[in-house]
Amino acid sequence: MGKLKNKVAIITGAASGIGKAQALLFAKEEAKVVVVDLNLDGIQDTVSEIKAKGGQAIGVQANLTNDDDISNLVEKVISEYGEISILLNTAGLFDQYKSLLNTDESLWNKMLDVNITSLYKITSKVLPHMLEKKFGVIVNIASGAGLIAGGGGIGYTSTKHAVIGFTKQLNFDYGTQGIRANAIAPGLIETPMVKAVIDDPNSGVMDAVSKLPAGRYGQPGEVADLSLFLASDDSRYIYGAVVPIDGGLLSTLR
Ligand SMILES: NC(=O)c1ccc[n+]([C@@H]2O[C@H](COP(=O)([O-])OP(=O)(O)OC[C@H]3O[C@@H](n4cnc5c(N)ncnc54)[C@H](O)[C@@H]3O)[C@@H](O)[C@H]2O)c1
Q1: Is position 174 annotated as part of the catalytic site?
Q2: What's the pLDDT tens digit per position in 219-235?
Q3: Which of 55, 106, 244, 250 could make an SS bond with 50 (beta carbons 3.0 to 4.6 A apart)?
């Protein structure tokens, strides 16, 4: 039997990269997957791949910065499946390492809106349904940039630090009511988000990657495997943790 049988999992950012890998794996483990993203073509691709492999999924296009889109999403999931057991907050935006003086207020606001306020918005709408069942698992995708400087620019680093605080406080406030939230801090993972960085011979990133204990960057499926562990009962005593998956990056910093 699949590890997530009878669970309903909303996965944001599931049209691409890490979110797509999570959606495919969660469906394989028999979750009913809700594929959420801005990108409609990508949503359709993910849903079709899941269905072609015999899994269950619906796609919902939503801008996670928009209250109406989120209300419609949650209503649709409740009317379709009657409950929400798992929320993977995976969608996010990178700022291409822009420093403070290269970050105008519109980029700053966009980073806040997509990377942290969206978590506030969607989790606020999902949490009451979880509390009603006294069960809910939340996995937030933070970043190594949520723990140290240099993994992004000022907007990315600030918002990813905020994702970690958000995760810990959720546990503090709701852990005793059946809600379990953890964060993942990936290092460099090969997805469209960081393709330009990986492909740029002058970025210095590949030099740093070659010096990692793992000697390579990570794959979306590896983050999906960790997400499955954190979303399943196998991690039932893990609350409010920030789990790095970075080929050893954090462990080697002096
Ligand atoms: N790839 C990496 O190296 C890396 C490292 C650390 C953390 N992360 C984090 O992992 C998460 C997934 O990133 P990825 O690498 O798979 O990137 P990606 O660009 O492949 O996927 C991100 C997805 O989020 C969606 N999205 C963005 N804004 C949205 C919005 N307002 N509403 C709905 N959907 C929206 C995009 O359409 C896209 O499909 C992000 O939170 C990112 O910050 C990635």
Answers
A1: no
A2: 999 999 999 999 999 99
A3: 55
